[in-house]
Amino acid sequence: MTDFTKTKALFQIPEGMIYLNGNSLGPMPKSAPDRILDFMHNEWATDLIKGWNTKGWFMQTNTLGDRIGALVGAEEDSIVVGDTLSIKIFQAVAACLALRPDRKVILSDNGNFPTDLYMVEGLLKLKEAGYDLRTPNPDDVMEQITDEVACVMLTEVDYRTGRKHDMKAIIDKAHAHGALVVWDLAHSAGAIPVDLSGCDTDFAAGCTYKFLNGGPGAPAFIYVAPRLIADVEPALSGWYGHAAPFDFDLNYRPMPNKIDRMRIGTPSIASFAILEAAMDAWDGVDMQALRARSIELMTLFVGEVEARCPGLTLAGPRDMNARGSHVSFRFEHGYPCMQALIAKKVIGDFRAPDIMRFGITPLFLDEDDIRGAVDILSDILKNETWKEERFQTRSAVT
Fold first, then answer.
1. Going by fewer Cβ within 10 Å, which terminus of the chain is more open, N or C?
2. What are the catalytic residues?
3. Structural domain of residue 150, as residue ranges?
4. Is residue 165 part of a domain?
5. How confident is the model at residue 1, as a pLDDT?
6. Which residues of the chain carry a pLDDT beneath 50?
7. 85-107, pLDDT tens digit by residue?
8. Does residue 326 form part of some domain?
9. 199 pairs with which residues across the strands?
10. pTM, 2 dp
11. Is residue 375 in some structural domain?
12. Is there a single domain that holds both residue 24 and residue 117?
């Protein structure tokens, strides 16, 4: 069994703070400062450019990819790390369309994270006319998977409500109709058990700064099924994915039959150092145990809020097995209420138009945190503290 008391001790949480926002930005692992200083003093300072060979920098895209792969059920050598999630979504959807050239429909849903849709809109502007991006309600996606669909692009866990798509069922239906599927794992990796290989996943991408605790702007990752990689032509063809990057050919040749072809440009090795520290915190964590603990804490949180916080309405499924690892409540005055919570050191976030969002992250949260957060929320609602003028002004980041 995973000891969550021990994992909680691995993270730096400010004194007196209840941090319910690990679904947006994970807290800093206590080992991160030493790891970045070690990189600076014992790698960059001492080895300079030799570090690409002597310190293994050149292949960290892959070695870190395998560590993430162990958490999401990926085959060895099927994930690389680098760039941003938006770029990786662009790569994956472009690859799908190239593999299905006779089809013109990309199917998503209106609960998808908007940047994924923006990336597809931008991609389609680079292609000939006739492509169609469809965004039905999440519940209607299954019935809209037909023989005309080239690519189904979905975020497994809805960033607002926490609603979770049935990955296996959607993949099975898409494959039955000859379509490919791209999964955004931003709210899945490190939050719920994922089995990319067992679900026969085609493509997936995710970020490492949320549940994986890699720090602000930490690199993204991309997965391509080994059965597809030889046929995938990278739409973004950078030197790092070249078959022979140090031959300096003027024409691009992708790395043959390897996930390396999905690398683009030179990655941030300093960011990789912090991500390594974050991945160390996951050593020995059983994802099934994490899921069970997450459901326990979410159930407690929902029960306490509904019993003690009138005016808040649960968003997303009541069945905890049908959601990811965050809980959202709708409240007409959700923004100022969240600011009042933050002022009391209970950190969640707000998503327009009316959602107060709370990440339930068992690596560093326990029952006392949950009850303590609801104590403060209840007091804010009872005393209408959220009405104070200081909580009404919107910040740039909500």
1. N
2. 113, 184, 209-210, 357
3. 32-280
4. yes
5. 76
6. none
7. 999 999 999 999 999 999 999 99
8. yes
9. none
10. 0.96
11. yes
12. no
